[in-house]
Amino acid sequence: IASSDKFKAEEKINWVKTLDDILGERGVKQMAIRTILPSLNSEISDLLAEMHLQYQVVFDEEFNSKIYHMGIEIPTQTLSTGEMKKVDFIVLIAMLKLMKMKFSSINMLFLDELFSSVDPDGVHSILNILSKISKDLGLNVFVINHAPMPHEIFDWKLEVTKLNNFSSISIDRF
Between 23 and 86, whose confidence is greater? Predict the structure, then answer.
């Protein structure tokens, strides 16, 4: 009986170890990351090219990102605020596209102060990407901005103004 109990204890330990291997950092999670990373990195690369940014952003299997310029890794601190905002936007959109494949019911995207510190060409490129993904992914995109914006790609403009501590909303359809 003692050897049977010992065998059961060893079997239980082996089962727990196998379960830990599957569900732990190196198991299913790592397999999922390895499966997703090529698509994510490829999408980021495509969007960087679409925005005419001469960088490469790559996520590794630990989900750490590295930025390369002309094949050389560079620290993020070398990017201007506007460049960093564009890179952040691209990573966000790439992740959103992957999430949309798994969670097709996602239908809204809210972006607040996206254009501060972004140059006019960057604003134009971002707006084009937003217009495209809005149509391609069936997203309602809401852009919150405190400065005038080109309205050609928007269907609606909701303007909130505050006067005497009360907010009012005006709605224009383009």
Answer: 86
